[in-house]
Amino acid sequence: MKQPASLLPWIVAFKAFKSGSLAVVGIILLVTRQADPVDLATRAALAVHLPLTSELFDKAVNAAWNLTVAKQTALAFTAFAYAALMGAEGLALHFRKPWARWFTIVATASLLPIEVYEIARAVHVVRIVVLLANLAVVVYLWRRTDLFGAESASL
């Protein structure tokens, strides 16, 4: 029987996108530590033509208002750590390491409750899409033991 086409390259690309995005966020947080966060939020809103009267802008300014250099540094290192995790998952899956399947299942599934909490806190389409994508990755890797050889199935 013919096996269905592998979605593994798409999962690797998804992990690479998330890793790259988080690394960029970490860099921005580190580079802008000494700048006025409210001024940066205002300039960013103007750059993307976000109305300064919008609810999104109001939330961004409130978050920026409470941001200290220490908090910004901690957020940057958290973003880098999460980017490293996503990058490690993506590389391990790409090279089809026997442990990559379980590593990705555990790491991705462990963050699902946080995603559900965030959706319960404030429903947004992007949050729902990310949750569904991550859930699909977990289910797909759980079911596709054939992608990583016999030793992966027995772990």
Please tell me the total number of domains. 2
Unreliable residue runs = none
Bulk shape: elongated
Average of pLDDT: 90
What key attributes describe this structure?
single chain, 155 residues, 2 domains, mainly alpha
What would your notes on this structure say?
With 155 residues, the chain is an all-alpha fold. The chain has 2 domains: 1-95, no CATH class; 97-155. Helix content is 75%, strand content 0%. It has helices spanning 8-31, 37-47, 55-65, 69-94, 100-121, 125-143, 150-153. The radius of gyration is 19 Å and the shape is elongated. The two termini are 25 Å apart. The mean pLDDT is 90.
In short:
This protein is mainly α and 155 residues long. It has helices at 8-31, 37-47, 55-65, 69-94, 100-121, 125-143, 150-153.
Chain-wise SSE layout:
Blueprint: H1 8-31, H2 37-47, H3 55-65, H4 69-94, H5 100-121, H6 125-143, H7 150-153
